[in-house]
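R.M. (postdoc): so does anyone remember the format we settled on? I'll just put the structure tokens first.
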């Protein structure tokens, strides 16, 4: 039987390099890997499903699925995970406590940015902030002109104003915004002493959140075109298995304390802390191992109007990936 010829577009990660380099093959599949900027991958995947396999914003994926768009099918492969207590940036001269957010202008790069969904979830469920009491502004983080890529169904009473001609960084730096929730720091965070993270002890807060609630936010997942799985249903399991093997290889490299797999000192100590916070497996794939994270995110996304209805984890992954993992 001839192999499936599939294109794939993902970012550069140590936990996927074995697949891209061909050291871990996907059984029955021959890959053509595309080296593209992440923004282009998302734009082309959301708009046109240009690739057979692609890295995908979790928020945009679940929003599309909640609206009946099933062109893409996610696998429980989580390429990017970043805790998001650290994603809330404020002007400390205006916001010192959670109560200070009421009536303030807070920016987001996109309402349906995954980091912003998790950040607002922290604000609502950890800090007790009513999101409808904030004046929300949507604009590009560093450059003007960014727009939403999916349609929203905002909760009643929530105010979201797009700004096309200014960036969030400019508005925050000049005092026209009081805070920003974003995946990366605004540039003024490094130059304006009034702009800080809301959580002074953000790392402790994030690790406690993971340890107690078993939630490690998932930024990006892996999607496959539905037409591919309609033609070859077996491909879902084989793709998942290959990515899981590559992940395990990467974790082993990180755990080998005698070598530096990344040019950062004390990586071994960071690995030990992460394993303790996560209760063993610090970067799990699969549905069940990630159920607390997935259920929390789907709840946040629905509450915030990113998802048009409340989804379950089982709805967003194909049945053949719900249970046992091949080893």
């Amino acid at each position: 039987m001839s192999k499936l010829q599939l294109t794939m577009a993902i970012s550069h990660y140590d936990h996927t390099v074995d697949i891209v380099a061909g050291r871990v093959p996907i059984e029955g599949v021959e890959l053509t890997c595309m080296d593209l900027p992440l923004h282009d991958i998302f734009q082309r995947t959301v708009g046109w499903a240009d690739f057979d396999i692609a890295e995908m914003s979790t928020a945009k994926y679940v929003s599309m699925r909640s609206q009946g768009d099933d062109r893409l099918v996610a696998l429980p492969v989580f390429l990017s995970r970043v805790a998001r207590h650290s994603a809330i940036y404020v002007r400390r001269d205006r916001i010192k406590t959670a109560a200070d957010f009421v009536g303030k202008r807070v920016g987001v790069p996109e309402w349906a940015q995954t980091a912003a969904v998790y950040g607002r979830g922290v604000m609502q469920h950890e800090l007790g902030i009513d999101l409808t009491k904030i004046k929300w502004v949507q604009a590009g983080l560093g450059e003007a002109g960014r727009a939403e890529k999916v349609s929203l169904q905002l909760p009643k009473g929530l105010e979201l104003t797009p700004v096309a001609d200014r960036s969030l960084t400019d508005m925050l730096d000049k005092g026209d915004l009081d805070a920003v929730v974003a995946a990366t720091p605004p540039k003024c965070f490094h130059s304006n002493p009034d702009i800080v993270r809301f959580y002074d002890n953000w790392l402790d807060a994030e690790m406690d959140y993971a340890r107690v609630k078993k939630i490690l936010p998932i930024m990006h997942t892996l999607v496959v075109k539905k037409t591919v799985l309609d033609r070859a249903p077996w491909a879902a399991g084989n793709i998942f298995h290959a990515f899981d093997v590559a992940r395990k290889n990467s974790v082993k490299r990180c755990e080998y304390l005698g070598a530096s797999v990344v040019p950062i000192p004390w990586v071994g100590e960071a690995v030990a802390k992460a394993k303790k916070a996560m209760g063993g497996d610090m970067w799990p794939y699969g549905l069940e191992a990630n159920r607390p994270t997935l259920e929390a995110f789907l709840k946040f996304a629905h509450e915030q109007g990113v998802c048009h209805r409340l989804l379950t984890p089982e709805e967003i992954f194909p049945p053949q990936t719900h249970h046992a993992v091949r080893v």
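R.M.: ...and that's the designed sequence above, right after the tokens. Also worth knowing: Residues 235-255 form the longest helix (21 residues). Residues 7 and 52 are 5 Å apart (CA to CA).
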